[in-house]
Amino acid sequence: MLALTGPVTAADSTYTDLDLDKCKTIASDDMGAIMKCKGLKGYDIHFLEGDLRQSMLYGPVRKELIEGAFESFEPFNHVNTKVEWRLDASGKPFAAILRWFIENIGDTGSPTKEAEGQVLVISRVAQPDDGLSCVVGYVDALSNPNANELARQIADNEARDFACGYQESMWTGKRGDKTSDPTHVWPEGLAQE
Question: Which domain of life is it from (predicted)?
Answer without folding.
Answer: Bacteria
